[in-house]
Design goal:
Layout (H helix, E strand, L loop, with lengths): L2 H21 L10 E2 L6 E2 L11 E3 L5 E3 L8 E6 L7 H14 L6 E6 L7 H10 L7 E4 L3 H11 L5 H7 L10 E5 L5 E6 L3 H15 L1
Parallel strand pairs: 5-6, 6-7
Antiparallel strand pairs: 1-2, 3-4, 5-8, 8-9
Helix pairs in contact: 1-6, 2-6
Length: about 210
């Protein structure tokens, strides 16, 4: 069994548990697991791992750093504006997350995996066309190595299959993975952003953290 298959099984199992809790009306911050490694093994008490520091730029051309999400619940994703496969569904579903968590003030942060192409102006136009609220949903660009290091080391969004296939240290697999981060920078959920059931679960979990 490959590492990717194992991760998929874990994500599916955790998602199934979470959906059952949410549908039962019992979703709570205490019920959500913590994740501290790339295998996304669930822990039921706080872990040491937290999202690392970063300094990037949002779609308005403004500085966006880890200080801007300190004390905030947010959903992290990795996209690029020229993507015609996964991204349209991902962005459409993230719009649902944006709208459904508005009252609690959760944020969505989408990191561009092609930052050399996705300038703030490009991201701003992309956001305008898709009804993205720039106050609550940040499309982020900047130094490529910074973004890739965050993806691999903070959000565990990378996949070793790509690096093994092309034998390049900066190879990156565009991912449908969404990661829920709590007010302390800890990973509290991982979801498939193309699946409606996972989006429902993500919204329920985010709102539970916001309570």
């Amino acid at each position: 069994m490959t590492r990717a298959v194992k991760i998929a099984i874990v994500i599916g199992f955790v998602a199934a548990i979470g959906v059952a809790i949410a549908l039962a009306g019992k979703a709570s911050a205490e019920a959500l697991p913590y994740y501290g490694g790339a295998d996304f093994t669930a822990a039921w008490k706080p872990v040491a791992h937290r999202v690392g520091a970063f300094a990037l730029t949002d779609q308005r051309g403004r500085a966006f750093t880890d200080h801007d999400v300190a004390g905030r619940v947010y959903v992290a994703s990795f996209i690029y504006t020229r993507c015609s496969a996964v991204c349209p569904a991902l962005v459409k579903n993230l719009r649902k997350v944006q709208d459904a968590t508005e009252a609690g003030g959760a944020m969505v942060v989408s990191f561009s995996v092609t930052p050399d192409l996705d300038t703030p102006a490009v991201l701003s136009a992309f956001a305008h066309e898709r009804g993205i609220d720039a106050d609550r949903w940040k499309l982020v660009t900047g130094d490529k190595q910074t973004i890739y290091a965050l993806a691999r080391n903070s959000f565990f969004a990378d996949d070793d299959r790509v690096r093994a296939a092309v034998d390049q240290p900066d190879a990156f697999l565009h991912t449908e993975k969404l990661v829920l981060v709590d007010q302390h920078g800890r990973l509290r959920g991982v979801y498939d952003g193309t699946l409606p059931r996972d989006i429902e679960l993500l919204i329920a979990d985010a709102n539970a953290l916001l309570k």
